[in-house]
Amino acid sequence: MDELTRDKVQRRTLWILSISQIFGTIGVGVAPSIGILLAEEVTSNEAWAGLARTASTLGAALLGIPLGNLAARHGRRIALASGWWLAALGGLLLVPAAQFQLVVPLFAGLLMIGSGSAISLQARFAATDLASDDHKGRSLALIVWVGTIGTVLGPNLGIPGRIIGDATGLHIYAGAFLIAGAAMAVAGLLVFVLMRPDPLLVNRSSNQLVASAIPTRQRRGIKRFAVELRLNAPARYAVVSILSAQVVMVAIMTMTPIHVTHHGGSVSLVGVTISLHILGMYALAPVVGYVADRWGYRRSIAVGLAIFVASLLVGGVHPVNMGWIMTSLILLGVGWSFINVSGSALFATVINKQERASVQGGVDALSNLCGATAAFAAGPLMALSSFSALTVVAGIVLLPLVFMTVVAPQRMAVKR
């Protein structure tokens, strides 16, 4: 394929990914706020509320590698569509869970919604399949950025959910998850119908890979991911960056809705707080992508670390002031954006191209597994101590990444 045609396919791919990402992330965005509040209502237990977030992130972790392998075998189109549709089923399952206060459908639905998180992450890597190395950060950041619309709307689905409830008799949360399920189903349909040609298959063809060899490689997908980390220092640094940012962000965000309501905040205040946090995560993504491409991944990650530290200090020092908590959550989102976008772009640049999809699925799965662990631990930790103590623990988690970024950059062999 000539360069002009390749660029045309890349532009078309970015448009399709952008539109589907908006719809899909509306559904994904409902889990961190309404999903947690629903779990607390159904179980009447703060620790179980944390487990609700664990269910969605655990679902993303369990499905990351299978969806990556599906992409490697059949292309991004099939994998992305399948992931969005599975998440849509999860959203629809949460309608009766909310309506009839059912525990098993609650956690099953949230587990399946995790597929949406996994596929949303895969979409950002799909944006880099045909991008040149000096534009990977910007291409990846564009898909992260357009998700702002959906992920800001998602936590506020309680408002239209209440309208649907008034008209139909559905519980407010049931109405919210009904909208979420429909949005993710539309995302899958858009990808399935429109993503032709498939960017990963075009990239594979350009690199003259033998299709018959793919299944054999994918059976070693997990092993290949481990080998990549062991032999590839920049990839290892990128993974540590992604995982550190995910653990800190999820741990704090998971418990913020409960913390806010326990200090007199309303459901509406929770929605606004999480929306501002998510806005911080995604709104500046194009700027972050440009900075990463222009000034280098390590420097961009260092900026994210500084913002993370500021966020934790603000939240730890002013835990009961809702204005400061909002500020802390906004900074948390911006710090995550710098580290995650830069780390992901670095990873997409330095990994073995022949193992691209399955290895990317591996890092997404590991990221979500770490996020699930953080969410699981955050509930009991805050119940036994305080929100301030949670920020201290989050700061400790960042220390290895600080060392790799500031003290030993040469060992990481990151040239950009």
Automatic annotation (TrEMBL):
Residues 13-412 form the Major facilitator superfamily (MFS) profile domain. Keywords: Membrane, Transmembrane, Transmembrane helix. PROSITE patterns: MFS (PS50850). It holds the Pfam family MFS_1. GO terms for molecular function: transmembrane transporter activity. It is a multi-pass membrane protein. One of its GO terms (cellular component) is plasma membrane. The chain crosses the membrane at residues 14-39, 51-71, 78-100, 106-127, 139-159, 171-195, 237-260, 266-288, 300-318, 324-351, 363-383, 389-408. Coiled coil: none annotated. Its main location: membrane. Signal peptide: none annotated. It is found in: Cell membrane. InterPro entries: MFS, MFS_dom, MFS_trans_sf. It comes from the Bacteria. This is MFS transporter. It comes from Glutamicibacter ectropisis.
